[in-house]
Amino acid sequence: MLHQTKKHFELLDGMRGIAAIAVVLFHFMEIAQPDYRNNFIPRSYLAVDFFFCLSGFVIAYAYDSKLASIGLKRFFALRLIRLHPLVVIGSLIGILAFIYDPFSHLAASFSGLQKLGMFLSSITLVPYPAVPERYFNLFHLNPPTWSLFWEYIANILYALLLVRLSNKALWGLVLLAALALCLEAFQSGYLAVGFGADNFWAGGIRLGFSFSMGLLIFRSNWVIKNKLPSFLIIGLLTLIFFIPFSEEYGKIIDPVLVIFYFPLLILLGIGAGSLKGMVKICCKFLGDISYPLYIIHYPFIWLFMSYVALKHPSLPQMTMIITLGTMLLIVFSYLVLKYLDEPLRKYLFRRLN
Questions:
Q1: What is the model's pLDDT at position 273?
Q2: Rounded Cα gap, residues 335 and 326, in angstroms
Q3: Which residues does residue 196 pair with via DSSP β-bridges, in sequence order?
Q4: Is 279 exposed, middle or buried (0-12, 13-18, 19+ CB in 10 A)?
Q5: For the chain, what is the radius of gyration of the CA atoms?
Q6: How far is CA 198 from CA 79, 150, 321, 341, in A?
Q7: Residues in the chain with pLDDT values less than 50
Q8: In angstroms, rounded to a whole number, what is the distance separating the alpha carbons of residues 214 and 64?
Q9: Rounded to 5 degrees, what are φ and ψ at 222?
Q10: Alpha helix positions (H), the chain
């Protein structure tokens, strides 16, 4: 039973890593093929909803039984130590990539004060949608941090309110959030929203359902015990990202996947047996690089965008760049994790204690 043991869910690590790689490929393809109908991995934006649901489960699993004993101050400090070093690292990479972009002079059209505002926005996660040329992203230097903004909101709400919520009340919250998610999908036509100034609140709607569903999964002690091969469960997740884009059916497909399919996959991941050998090693690696890969890759997507706008490479050339770029970003993320993020977190944790 989930409440009787504190096992590590290795398969969930592997699933999280695959989802992060799908996000990187999706962002590359947004530049190479702006029309989602030509994107070979068009539904990878739903990986964010998977992350939110997984986060709700993991937070409840880790802190439901001990938040009262460790206190709010330590909880918030632990969450900052876990998440924020990479936010700062990603911001530094972002400002350097923006200012020294060899393929674009966009940075020259912004004052030093505006650039400082972008950087402060990026490291403090205070939205500052300042660049109309790039879709008014809430955090231009490192756009994926829009989801971290909402992740922080979720952590605050969890500690102040959700941790004490009864299962009955949590069920009510999940149902209301599911309704809001469906309404957002029908209004927008899909769920690739939340990153920009014109769709800011959609990010909160996406978080609202998936995070609360993750809490409910743990609180209800749901699990699907299974002996399915790990590659099959990961394959069931990966399959989602390749579902062709449809303007007509996206408003139906996206909420169905988020409300029903992702929780089912997490239940399968929870109920999977212990991994062994190379599968265990691969899932650990994927889990390790998932967060750094997600949070530091986008400045390089901006460089790719500038390159494409200036050089107009052919599709085969872009295919080669995307393939090589994704592999290099995975390696770079691992190096950042081992030589920057983990040492920083260890230092901060020692200071906290």
A1: 87
A2: 14
A3: 137
A4: middle
A5: 20
A6: 29, 16, 31, 33
A7: 4
A8: 13
A9: -80, 140
A10: 10-32, 47-63, 67-99, 112-124, 145-160, 167-188, 200-219, 230-241, 250-256, 262-271, 277-296, 298-311, 315-336, 342-352
- How many Cβ atoms sit within 10 Å of the Cβ of residue 108? 9
The structure tokens listed for 272 are 């999977």
Every domain of the chain and the residues it spans: 2-352
| pLDDT value of residue 32 | 97
The torsion defined by the Cα of 51, 52, 56 and 62, in degrees rounded to 10, comes to: 40
Is 59 in contact with 215 (CB distance < 8 Å)? yes
Q: Give me 347's structure tokens.
A: 């230092």
Give residue-wise pLDDT tens across range 254-287. Answer: 999 999 999 999 999 999 988 999 999 999 999 9
Query: What is the reported pLDDT for 7?
Result: 80
| pLDDT tens, position by position, 27-43 | 999 999 999 999 999 99
